[in-house]
Amino acid sequence: MELKKAIEHLKAAESSIAGIVTDIRFAEFPSGWDVARIAREVGPEMPVVYISGDGAPDWASQGVPKSIIESLSSYHN
Q: Alpha carbon of 4 to those of 1, 18, 34, 62, 63: distances in Å?
């Protein structure tokens, strides 16, 4: 699903999204950080899982509260 369409679906009143899993970095705006903030505007308790190859150090300052991050950099040797 295109990023803009995904955000439109998130914001839709009839959205059935119960949680999101998002990469942190996309080729264009918005970032995964932004997508999570939008999701939390829609549902303040919506579960958020971030996936990143290199953005884990930014999670403390950029991530939404009560979210988790899975850093893929630990899987690459």
A: 8, 18, 12, 20, 20
